[in-house]
């Protein structure tokens, strides 16, 4: 069974039982019969463009076995009606999406109108819920007692928005134009900003950073105010790390672009008219300014211990644990609040003579020891009142 702790979380999942990726709640033993403690307004329902439920959806959360009333630590996650953000991160394939989907169902079944957001281009969240969530719209997830909506943001699409805005505000096309006008000094400044490079070969993680800022934009609108729990199914570790450091970079870059745009605008009306084709310079600048503001909000949100928690998901393998350790170190460096670690896919003791299972489980137990002795991860464990499930 799953065991949670306020500071260290361990899911022990019966890997030898075939777990359908379409039923992550069952995988994590999350209950649908948990009594709701928080009562949202009965009329709560976003009026945004909502995709209709897919007919004959095979996924039924209500069918999930009720087993985890004793899950420790979840009370803390579920308590309070103020909005909280949970960001799940970890190595590729450890189960971030499955855990995000499960956590979201758990929140919804405990009375929280919940939104689960994915910026993962692989659309695994759609697979987890067996519903088509693509299209950047809120999709109601069937099953939980209280509203649960999912939103998949296409990072490619949102990146285009940024590219367009930035291009309108001093991209390579403008540089060429200015060169042609003999405005060498301003052109040089543009060169220094390496805008062409930024736009043509965006740094890894830019897509996710922009996608998350897009989610922030949504969340500010009144239609989204009902959500008290927001669960992010984040991108794999490397991307996530870069994403976390990106807002600073973007803030600086966009700020420079904006300043430069002002200079350009006052330098010559000829350039103004060049900008005037399509989007007006003021509109484009406003759009960029809003993007910059949202990026700053994302950056601040990542560091806000009251409302945000970054949950590391790992598996009991040497590689995953090593990577989780590095992830925790980097998150600490970035002042991102981390309190919990989910150890997914722990084999239960085997009742059969399966030698493979026995060897595998022994490896897993060794890996769990590694967590306890890891200077980064044991600090998450320090406040633990329990022990890792299955460990002797
Ligand atoms: N406890 C589990 N038991 C069995 N299968 C699991 C378990 N957790 C996850 N899986 C399976 O492992 C695969 C990867 O899971 P998932 O997509 O949740 O990981 P992820 O970390 O989000 O992956 P990615 O990094 O590629 O986005 C899926 O097929 C999922 O069904």
Automatic annotation (TrEMBL):
Transmembrane portions of the chain: none
Record's protein name: ArsA/GET3 Anion-transporting ATPase-like domain-containing protein
Domain ArsA/GET3 Anion-transporting ATPase-like: residue ranges: 84-373
Superkingdom to which the source organism belongs: Eukaryota
